[in-house]
Amino acid sequence: MRKLEQDYDILGNHQASCRMDVDVIPLKIPSDKGHQVHVSGLRWDGTQEDLEQELRKMFASYGPLHRVTARRGGLGCGAEGDNVWYGYVAYFSAFDAEEVLKQSGKMVIGGSRIKLKKTYKSDDFESQALSLHKSQELLIHYFGFNCWTSEIVYLERDGDEERKDSVRYVCLVRVRMPREGLCSEGVGLGEVPCTTQSPQGRGQSVACARRYAFNSAMKAAFGKFVIIKLRNGKVTVEVDTTQTDLQMYDPSWDRTEVEVNDIDHDPEEEDSDEEFALLQDIDDEELGALLDITISKDA
Question: How far apart (Å, rounded) are the C-alpha atoms in residues 53 and 245?
Fold first, then answer.
């Protein structure tokens, strides 16, 4: 993994790493450059939703898709512009986009052969994390169902007593991929406004804050996985240890602690003192009766 990271830094961009027959796929929204394919020559009499569904069904056979969009119109549409469309298909893997480009002029949708070409965008793309659902889908595609497990290490309310108008929880989760021997941790924060004093209203705010904290932590943990795909079809996964969580957590959350307090006296002596104080309040007659009862029981 270190060798791959060094090569990735030296070449400076993701497309260069593809030329080395290695495709690094972080669980983030892919840039258009190297991942997006322009589709033209579409003739479609149906709705935009149906066309996008048809495009997704056809192009998904080449690899997992991030986005499929279709638009009406295009160059040279003329009077037939009502049924002339164009579209964009974005893949997570640049290898998949390269492979599908070889099918330009061979695919047929709606009775027309479509043309495919690369799209070029500016290099100022700012990558963003995928949604939790998309991240899980991508891992399942490459590594199968039940490829990961998760556990909550810490989920507690923030101890800031000055926050009276909101409820805030902090969560730490641990996601494991047992077959690969990998573990990724994520920290999440969930804060929900709470202006009501009713038990029901505050209970709902607490439940929402806990859920938001958990989902945020899960998203952070999954976002650290990096899929590595070779051109020969082999796939592996690593954890990006360079990523840091937005909310730092206390390492003590990860272990059970027992608090021990020092005391300056013997507890047995304390009990004896209490018993002696009670005996001082008993007169001679009561003490004699108590002793008689004790002796009779011993007999």
Answer: 37
Q: For the chain, which ranges sit under pLDDT 70?
A: 1-20, 74-82, 121-126, 159-163, 245-299
* Range list of β-strands (E), 92-181: 108-109, 112-113, 115-118, 149-157, 166-177
d(CA 90, CA 141): 16
pLDDT per position as a tens digit, 170-220: 999 999 999 999 999 999 999 998 877 788 888 888 999 999 999 999 999
3-state helix, strand, coil in the chain (%, to 5): 40, 30, 35
In single-letter form, the type of residue at position 296 comes to S
Q: In this predicted model, what pLDDT tens digit does every residue of 157-170 receive, in sequence order?
A: 886 655 678 889 99
Q: What is the DSSP letter of 131?
A: P
Residue type, 212: Y
Beta strands in the chain (DSSP E): 22-26, 36-43, 65-72, 84-91, 108-109, 112-113, 115-118, 149-157, 166-177, 182-193, 225-230, 235-239
Find, among 109, 43, 118, 125, the residue nearest to 77 by Cα: 43
